[in-house]
Structures are given as structure tokens and as C-alpha cells.
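Q: Please design a sequence for this.
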């Protein structure tokens, strides 16, 4: 295993992160969409709850 200085490792990591593509962005978009759908369903369906009065 080759020893590389910390700054060289950080530069390589930053370069590799730039080449990964839209993976992280798509994950964030999917999570936000799922949370938004759950909140929308809760908001719409809460009015149909029966009130036991």
C-alpha cells in the first residue's frame, strides 16, 4: 500500500466525487418525493377520519 500525503488523497477524492455523476442528487430527489407523497396523503386523508362524538 502506497503512502500518499493527505492533500493528495483529498484532491483525488474530490476529483472522483466529481466524476460519479448524478447519483447523490437522484437519491435526494427520491427521498424528497417520497416524503412529499406521504405528507400529501396524510394531509388529504386526515379529513376523512371519523369523529366519535
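A: Design:
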Amino acid at each position: 500500500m502506497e503512502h500518499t500525503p493527505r492533500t493528495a488523497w483529498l484532491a483525488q477524492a474530490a476529483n472522483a466525487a466529481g466524476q460519479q455523476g448524478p447519483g447523490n442528487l437522484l437519491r435526494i430527489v427520491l427521498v424528497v418525493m417520497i416524503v412529499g407523497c406521504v405528507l400529501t396523503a396524510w394531509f388529504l386523508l386526515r379529513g376523512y377520519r371519523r369523529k366519535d362524538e
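Q: Thanks. Anything notable?
A: Residues 23-45 form the longest helix (23 residues). The mean pLDDT is 78.
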